[in-house]
Amino acid sequence: MTTKKPDDNERQHVVVPPKNNAGKLDYTYIIGGILLWGLIGWGLDFLLQTSWIVFAAIPVGVVCGYYLARHHQRHGRQDDGN
Q1: C-alpha–C-alpha distance, residues 82 and 70, integer Å
Q2: What one-character DSSP code corresponds to residue 16?
Q3: pTM (2 d.p.)
Q4: Could you give the 3-state DSSP secondary structure of residue 10?
Q5: Most buried of the four, 15, 47, 55, 68, by CB within 10 Å?
Q6: Who's near 54: CB < 8 A, 6+ residues apart?
Q7: CA atoms within 13 A on the CB side of 3
Q8: Cβ atoms 68, 31 nearer than 8 A
């Protein structure tokens, strides 16, 4: 077995988020999407004097939160080695 010195451009290590935290992060994104789009829908309902936009905005928040959670899992930022 030989020991090789790493080059300056070569990564020393890569940090991978633990699997037990991934589920909690998914729920955080989904709940955040529900809250954000629910508030947007509520505000639009208030401004436009309607009562249905909030019920249309909440599923949009669920879908957006799910999309962001999956995107974060696939393209999460790796450690820069510092």
Answers
A1: 26
A2: -
A3: 0.64
A4: coil
A5: 68
A6: 38, 41, 42, 44, 45
A7: 1
A8: no
Supply 28's token pair.
């955080």
Amino acid at the residue 58: I
Choose among 60, 27, 28: nearest CA to 41.
Answer: 60
**Rounded to whole angstroms, how far apart are CA atoms 56 and 3?**
60
Mind listing the pLDDT tens digit for each residue in 50-78? 999 999 999 999 999 999 988 888 876 55
Using an 8 Å Cβ cutoff, are 45 and 53 in contact? yes
Distance, in Å, from the CA atom of 66 to the CA atom of 50, rounded to the nearest integer, reads 27
Residue type, 21: N
